[in-house]
Amino acid sequence: MKPAQNQASRQAIRHTLRQQIRQQRRTLSAEQQTQAAHDLLARFQQSPTFSQAQHVALYLAYDGEIDTQPLIHWLWQQGKHVYLPVLHPFSPGHLLFLHYTATTPMHTNRYGIAEPKLDVRAVKPVMELDLIGTPLVAFDDTGQRLGMGGGYYDRTLNPWHQHRYGPQPVGLAHDCQQVNVLPTEAWDVPLPDILTPSHHFHW
Residue 121 has what DSSP assignment? Predict the structure, then answer.
């Protein structure tokens, strides 16, 4: 099979996996989502590396993603700083991270996802974050991550991937998002840690 055909085949498989896994997590009941969110918090609290972080980037759940609200509220209670991703207004495909509090003005971005209204005073340079809680669609037994396809987090995490420089990434997911093997591309950034309600995977 020619390289172009190989890539087309991988892309087709990745597209199918995205559809299947997104559908699986969307079918979780409200009770299952609530339990998963609290179990995720417990996993986070059990890791000294994570629980001691002071500047933590997270995301607001969308499209069946595991809910981060209990984790966010716990971090606030501990006096820690939480940041949310914002689509970069001048650099397509990149993210900014803004300080997030209970009173942060919000709006909906072009993907239908809630994010803080852009305020340069609230921007935290990525390299000053301690931890980036990373959303994902699927992950495999080696820590490979399949995102939504925009490459935002692959670009954000590339310095860490190449040089182990910058905030430590940790994937956050439901247990049903695990697959045996993901077809990968050169730009994919594997994760060293993934938390699910029932496991802390570490590579």
Answer: G
Give the confidence band of 2 by pLDDT, cuts at 50, 70, 90.
low
Whether residue 151 is annotated as binding a ligand: the answer is: yes
**pTM given for the model:** 0.91
Residue 129, domain CATH: 3.40.50.10420
145/40 Cα distance (integer angstroms) = 18
Give the strand pairing for 168-172 and 193-195: parallel
Q: Is 64 annotated as a binding residue?
A: no
Q: Is 100 annotated as a binding residue?
A: no
Nearest-angstrom CA–CA distance, 195 and 38: 12
Compute the radius of gyration of the chain from its Cα atoms.
Answer: 17
Q: Is 148 annotated as a binding residue?
A: yes
Q: What is the pLDDT of residues 128-149, one digit of tens each?
A: 999 999 999 999 999 999 988 7
Please give the single-letter amino acid code of residue 160.
Answer: W
Find out whether 143 is annotated in a ligand binding site.
Answer: no
Number of domains in the chain: 1
Q: pLDDT tens-digit profile of 166-193? A: 799 999 999 999 998 888 777 778 899 9
Q: How far apart are CA 123 and CA 59, in angstroms?
A: 15
Residue range of the domain that includes 151: 3-202
171 among annotated binding-site residues: no
